[in-house]
Amino acid sequence: MTRALILLRRRLIGSIFVLLIVVIGTFLLLEAAPGDAVDAYIVSTGGDAGMIELLRHRWGLDQSELTRLANYLWALLHLDLGQSVTFSRPIRDVILERLPNTLLLMVSATALSFGLGSALGIYAGARPGSVRDRILSIGSLALYAIPGFWLGLVLIVVFAVDLRWLPIGGIEALASDKTGLDRAADIAIHLVLPVAALGFIYLALYLRMMRAGMAEVWRQDFVLAARAKGLSRRRIVLAHVARNALLPLVTMLGLQSAQMLGGSVVIESVFSVPGLGRLAQEAVAARDTPLLLGIILVSAVLVVVINLLVDIAYAFLDPRVGAGEANA
Amino acid sequence: MSRFRRFLRTPEAVAGAIILAALIAMALSASLLFPGDPQAIAGPALLPPFQDWSLPLGTDRLGRDVLAELFHGARTSLAVGLAAAAAALAVGSVVGTLAGFAGGFIDEVLMRITDAFQTVPSFLLALAFVSVVGPSLGIVVIAIALGTWTGPARVARAEVLSIRERDYVASARAIGMHPLAIAFREVLPNALPPVLAMSSVIVAAAILTEAALSFLGLGDPNRVTWGGMIAEGRTVLRTAPFLSIVPGIALVLTVLGVYLAGEGIVETTAVRRGLQ
User: Fold this and answer.
1) Can you tell me where the transmembrane regions are (chain A) (predicted)?
2) Cβ-count burial of B6 within 10 angstroms (0-12 exposed, 13-18 middle, 19+ buried)?
3) Is the dihedral of CA A54, A58, A61, A67 positive or negative?
4) Of these four, A2, A137, A264, B154, which has the most CB atoms within 10 Å of its CB?
5) Are A265 and B124 in contact (CB under 8 A)?
6) DSSP A287
7) Sign of the dihedral defined by the CA atoms of residues B210, B211, B213, B219, in that order
8) Residue A326 has pLDDT above 50, yes or no
9) Taking CB atoms and an 8 Å cutoff, what residues of chain B touch A293?
10) What's the rounded mean pLDDT across residues A229-240?
11) What is the pLDDT of residue A175?
């Protein structure tokens, strides 16, 4: 247990540096954006030059860049991301309102891609070079080549427009007063297509990694030993080969979380899911740069947290990791 | 056996090479076969495909020739994909070489910056960059490269770490070569093969990111893009789904071609270097 704790502490310290760099980066982008918060405010409400001066002074925008960076960091420490001009509300509140939908979409899509992907990978990797292995491997490559947003549109055409089996978009039926299980079922039905579109793209990744990992493990001595012991093929595949090939996939789970968040931007906009990604697109359309950068910061924090969780899980799954990392 | 013939022996690689060759032909011949503005009105609006042989793939919502747009879109996709990947590979190998060769504090700083870029979802970063600086072909290329240079940087660093202990590096030091000269003239060229092996994956990812950006309306507004065509078709998805489906198929085939050809090249060179 202490090994895991030491590992966690090392990762936490590293993460804080990484997040600091992200914050400075977003601050620089914010500076590079034409106009500032006052300009955006004046455009939406109107006001004269005196008003502009007054607001700049009140919001601290007339100070030096370093002071403003310090103010920005200080505000962030108090979980204050600033005010969104488009929503006339604190950015933090807007983001927190949308975050659950994105998390729901991401977790479901990850479960789909990881579960189905590794299962199919085991199926393909159990008999390397067989017909089913080649078909699955080429099929997964094709899947990997499909843009998620286009797959989403095709799914809409087939299942929502032609067959009318599933809703075309949104997170739940509008103006419905469903509660409890009914509401959960309604949300689940709305999520089928977006989760499929997001999950199927990454499924290929896990399938291919599983398959490649198993190909490595097959060559190792302990597999030969298991065979010599006379274990059944099924048992060798599941208990020895697949189990050892599964570990790298867990690491991938953390690394992919950033990609998954990026992918959900487009998927959410295709299916009008009111999540973080769609919010990012709305921020771009409204030129609300502070909101956009707030979303980036929250996403970075989310990715860091997911990777920490994956590291902890990994330390539990593979006792060698904790020992090696703690000594390094 | 020559490398080329070995490449031709794998059916997947051949399929990939054929797709890529067709795509390059499309991109190069776009101005010859379809001179003039591909965004100009060419016929009646929403003409279905295979009706009028002067407009084989029909027209879109505004009456633009879909086939002409498809050819000109191939140009944008390929140009952006190749340029962004080249930029990402160049920046990545330079950063990775510097980090790996210098070690110590410089390594620590460069790798934390790499971590930071990997922590921010690259698509969100590209989105923010284009929306702050403004959409143009060059900006889209930079935006995509911003999120993709980290992979090559890590691979280059790992390779440099093993190369810098070799004898020829020590002898270069002994004859008094400048450390930067050693890093970039002796070490970097030898660290390149595993970095270049990533290029097909990076080109493919760049093409997909460009498509997604232009789908969200953040592509260069003066150029035809497949992503933009799909977004255009989306407005008439119920009545004319082919307008979104056709450019999507072109995208899938392109990315698949890049993957297959790339895998073929990596496999043949790996065999040649006795790594299999």
Assistant:
1) 12-30, 103-123, 135-161, 187-207, 291-317
2) middle
3) positive
4) A264
5) yes
6) T
7) positive
8) no
9) 128
10) 79
11) 64
Residue pair A155/A197 in contact (Cβ under 8 Å)? The answer is yes
CA distance A28 to A16: 18
- The residues, any chain, with a CB within 8 Å of residue A272's CB and separated by 6 or more, are A169, A170, A278
* B55 strand-pairing partners: B52
Sign of CA dihedral A167, A170, A172, A177: negative
- Domain with residue B228: its CATH number is 1.10.3720.10
Find the radius of gyration of the CA atoms of chain B. Answer: 22
Phi, psi values for residue A78, rounded to 5°: -95, 20
Q: Which of residues 11-70 of B touch A (CB under 8 A)?
A: 12
The model's pLDDT over B99-139, given as tens digits with 9 standing for 90+, comes to 999 888 999 999 999 999 999 998 999 998 998 888 889 99
pLDDT in tens, B205-264: 999 999 999 999 888 888 889 998 998 888 888 888 888 888 999 999 999 999 888 888
- Alpha carbon distance B258, B202 (integer Å): 10
Model pLDDT, residue A313: 81
Q: Which residues of B touch A256 (CB under 8 A)?
A: none
Taking the Cβ of residue B195 and every Cβ of chain A, the question of whether any pair is shorter than 8 Å is answered with: no
Structure tokens at B80: 């952006």
- Mapped onto helix, strand or coil, the DSSP state of residue B55 is strand
Torsion of CA A267, A272, A274, A279, to 10 degrees: 70
Q: What distance in Å separates the CA atoms of residue B73 and residue B26, rounded to the nearest whole number?
A: 9
For chain A, the straight-line distance linking the first and the last C-alpha, in angstroms and rounded, comes to 17
3-state secondary structure of B41: strand
Per DSSP, the three-state class of B65 is strand
Domain span including residue B149? 2-275
Measure A18 CA to nearest chain B CA, in Å.
5
Average pLDDT over chain B, rounded to whole?
85
Flag whether pLDDT at A285 surpasses 50: yes
Q: What is the CA radius of gyration of chain A?
A: 24
* A91 burial level (CB within 10 Å; 0-12, 13-18, 19+): buried
In chain B, which residues have their Cβ closer than 8 Å to the Cβ of A311?
A: none
Q: Report CB contact under 8 Å: A142, B252.
A: yes
A303 touches chain B (CB under 8 A): yes
| Nearest CB to B256; choose among A19, A141, A153 | A141
Distance of CA B256 to the CA centre of its chain: 12
Average confidence (pLDDT) over A192-220: 86
Q: Are strands A89-90 and A83-84 parallel, antiparallel or unpaired?
A: antiparallel
**Tens-digit pLDDT profile for residues A150-193:** 999 999 888 878 787 888 777 777 666 777 777 877 887 888 88
Count of the separate structural domains present in chain B:
1
Residues of chain A neighbouring B227 (CB-CB closer than 8 A):
147
A84 beta partners? A89
